[in-house]
């Protein structure tokens, strides 16, 4: 096992009007184990039957994933959130409302939204969660990530996670399962895959078994985001 510390800003990905993929990965003291890793991550849940189907697939395949949850929906579906926690999945915050103009009004509004979402999750599972994903990515058509907000989030203990591969199921939830599968496939050794489990993401749930099968056959280990996972974000604005 080889250990090394590094700060890498080198992953370049595609952009969209609705969801901007991160361009760089920020990692420090990453432990290299000569294994291929994938982090399945799902935003915008819990989304009723879609989320339930995704949880069923994960259980059937003995795979753990990470869910970035919207606080309002947590309060509507506490049973699904409890199940995520009980079955060993990782949970993070994804704001309380996911309303673009509200959450990106200013730094204070963004922080308040995520603290409120954090409390909603804590009320269900009995513990605070600190993984955080920005709606539409940390740099998007509404907001450019600033150091001041990063510092404020870090002061509250939050860790920021964008992604390295985008299934694009948010841009078009009606994308065919096969298209979602193809856009999820990558040969990178370190993949953080963005998918969604909202009410409209039925085809994402249908695509998931094949995505899992592909990465299992390719020799990947399935990981969850936790306190030891290096953050992934791009800081464009140094202020």
From TrEMBL:
Has the keyword Transferase been applied to this entry? no
Q: Tell me the InterPro entries matching this sequence.
A: Glyco_hydro/deAcase_b/a-brl, NODB_dom, Polysacc_deacetylase_ArnD
Entry-linked Pfam families: Polysacc_deac_1 (PF01522)
**What SUPFAM superfamilies does the database record attribute to this sequence?**
Glycoside hydrolase/deacetylase
What are the coiled-coil residue ranges? none
The stretch of residues making up the signal peptide is 1-19
Question: Which residue intervals define the domain NodB homology in the entry?
Answer: 36-223
GO BP terms: carbohydrate metabolic process
Which UniProt keywords are present, listed alphabetically? Signal
Q: Which domain of life is it from?
A: Bacteria
Q: What's a Gene Ontology MF term here?
A: hydrolase activity, acting on carbon-nitrogen (but not peptide) bonds
Q: Know the name of this protein?
A: Polysaccharide deacetylase
């Amino acid at each position: 096992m080889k250990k090394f510390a590094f700060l890498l800003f080198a992953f370049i990905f595609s952009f969209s009007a609705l969801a901007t993929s991160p361009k760089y990965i920020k990692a420090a003291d990453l432990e290299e184990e000569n294994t291929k890793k994938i982090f399945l991550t799902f935003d915008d849940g819990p989304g009723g039957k879609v989320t339930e189907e995704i949880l069923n697939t994960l259980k059937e395949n003995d795979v753990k994933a990470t869910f970035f949850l919207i606080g309002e929906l947590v309060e509507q579906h506490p049973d699904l959130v409890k199940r995520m926690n009980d079955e060993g999945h990782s949970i993070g915050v994804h704001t309380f409302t996911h309303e673009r103009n509200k959450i990106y009004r200013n730094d204070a509004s963004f922080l308040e939204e995520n603290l409120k979402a954090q409390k909603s999750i804590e009320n269900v599972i009995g513990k605070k969660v600190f993984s955080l994903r920005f709606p539409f990515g940390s740099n998007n058509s509404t907001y450019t990530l600033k150091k001041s907000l990063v510092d404020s989030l870090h002061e509250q203990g939050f860790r920021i996670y964008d992604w390295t591969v985008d299934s694009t199921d948010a841009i078009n939830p009606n994308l065919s399962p096969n298209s979602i599968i193809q856009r999820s496939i990558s040969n990178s050794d370190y993949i953080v895959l963005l998918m969604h489990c909202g009410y409209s993401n039925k085809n994402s749930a249908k695509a998931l078994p094949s995505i899992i099968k592909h990465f299992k056959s390719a020799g990947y280990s399935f990981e969850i985001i936790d306190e030891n996972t290096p953050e992934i974000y791009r800081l464009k604005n140094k202020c």
